[in-house]
Amino acid sequence: MNRDIVCIGAGYIGGPTMAVIAAKNPDRRVVVVDIDKKRIAAWNSKNYALPIYEPGLVDVVKKVRGKNLFFSTDVRKAVRECDIVFVGVNTPTKMFGRGAGRASDLQYWEATARNIAKWANRGKIVVEKSTLPVRTAAAMSAILNTHDKFRFQVLSNPEFLAEGTAIRDLLEPDRVLIGGPSDEAGEEAVRALIDVYAGKDGCWVPRERILTTNVWSAELTKLAANAFLAQRVSSINAIAGLCEATGADVDEVARVIGADRRIGPRFLKAGPGFGGSCFKKDVLNLVYLCESFGLHTAAEYWTQVIKMNDHQQERIVSRLFKEMFNTLANKKIAMFGFAFKADTGDTRETPAGYVARLLCEEHVKLSVTDPKAIENGRRDLADIDGVAWERDPYAAAKDADAVLLMTDWAEYATLDWERIYRSMRKPALVFDTRNCLDAAALRKTGFKVLNVGK
Ligand code: NAD
Ligand code: UDX
To answer: Are 133 and 143 in contact (CB under 8 A)?
Structure first.
């Protein structure tokens, strides 16, 4: 077996993960392939204009690209040459037919499996990196193992990185999860993958942080982990509404809840609700799985996590409506931040997108600014009129009636808010949905200030 690695899918997962695998395994050749020519060209661009923004990513790519990390559109060649094949293609929510709106759309996944089967000239280790429904590995194995002469081992190795902190999460993961079969060949494949994560001379993930399970546990763990995290966000947002109604302060409540070591302080930040490509899709996938196995009460339970999240965004618009004298028509609102969280340009399922659409239905003149997400945002909202995009937050806020902060970019806290106040129509409102600005200072300046959960 050779030590080289190929990853099919050069997206938010494939790109950063393979860059770090290459950096930690200088003695392995790592090739990332994709059918999207534009994406591969961007990964290969001379000036490092990479297709995704992720802090620290450019530095890692600069160190390894052209040495032992390569990006290519020649999927066939890369698959033939390697013995370890990661599959990191997209698995979005299915929008048609059976399971529409909940199940995973596995067409890209299956196309990849069939290609590997078609092109392979020897048995390989195939690693599921994408997030998949439980028992997908069985389907993968059935598609792959139709050859008489050689066999494929299918492992599940879900990725837990979060966008915005991907490089840090990859360099120092809480855990790496590998699910594999318990027969001799399966165990050998698991050992080969452990070796990748150990890094050259054991320079990367300590052995005790590499957890091994059976394949089905690994597949389900990924969905369960995201569902638990999403549920925490919905839980604190459910408390936020009650805080607004009663005079309690959600940040104080969260601080004290989180001091209980059984609960812990992280992931208790009230806000506009969760976005990103994973939480909604993975919770819906879990709901679909529960329903498929007749577990209807469990399905309803997880459905509420999504309902609560949607409600949070509707509540933001309702509060704005009420504070702005029950009419938003022709008022200018400056939206600060469009990415689903800070430190990423990703806008998939961003709460800002949903809120922007609700505001446009009210005939708001919307001016959106974001340090990294303007290009993606412009594409997301291409079908609606009345949205202006501004790189400069001061220009976005000029003559506005309200600033609606949707993303907690650190730079928003250090803006010259007195200057912004002077340039706005009065009364000037700031609705800080991330509770990241100094509300007392803003009030002193003259702003009316709204927060989530206060
Ligand atoms: P993405 O859309 O950014 O990237 C997927 C890539 O796969 C695309 O560039 C697409 O062109 C390529 N692709 C699709 N079919 C192909 C084929 N047949 N051959 C070659 N390339 C093909 O998606 P992503 O965000 O990287 O997510 C990928 C998977 O990883 C998903 O299952 C997701 O749930 C999971 N995941 C994502 C994150 C995250 O933070 N984005 C975190 C954990 C897990
Ligand atoms: C998530 C998981 O964290 C990660 O383990 C998995 O691999 C992919 O899905 P990601 O979606 O990139 O990662 O970002 P995350 O930091 O989890 O944030 C998700 C959303 O929840 C964001 O919109 C964020 O703003 C929101 N959030 C998070 C809150 O509103 N409050 C919190 O306390 C934490």
So the answer is: no
Of 7, 12, 140, 168, the residue with max ligand 1 atoms within 8 A of its CB, to mutate for a pocket test, comes to: 12
Domain match, 249 and 389 both: yes
Which residue of the set 7, 82, 278, 436 is catalytic? 278
Question: pLDDT of 293-345, one tens digit each?
Answer: 999 999 999 999 999 999 999 999 999 999 999 999 999 999 999 999 999 99
Asked if 75 contacts 36 with a C-beta cutoff of 8 angstroms, the reply is no
> How far apart are the C-alpha atoms of 136 and 253, rounded to whole Å?
41
Smallest Cα–Cα separation from 162: which of 33, 36, 274? 274
Angstrom distance (rounded) from CA 70 to CA 66: 6
For residue 450, the enclosing domain spans: 214-454
Structure token pair of residue 129: 């990196």
pTM greater than the 0.90 cutoff: yes
CB 156 within 8 A of CB 239: no
225 and 195 part of one domain: no
The long-range contacts involving 41-50, CB below 8 angstroms and separated by at least 24 positions, are 43/10, 43/15, 43/71, 44/71, 50/15
Report how far residue 397's alpha carbon sits from residue 368's, in angstroms, rounded to the nearest whole number: 9
CB 433 within 8 A of CB 316: yes
The residue written with tokens 């067409």 in the block is 107
For tokens 């994408």, name the residue. 130
Q: Give the separation between CA 253 and CA 295, rounded to whole angstroms.
A: 33
Q: Closest ligand to 233 CA?
A: 2
Nearest CA to ligand 1 atom 14: 89
Looking at the structure, tell me whether residues 130 and 175 fall in a common domain.
Answer: yes
Beta carbons of 363 and 328 less than 8 angstroms apart: yes
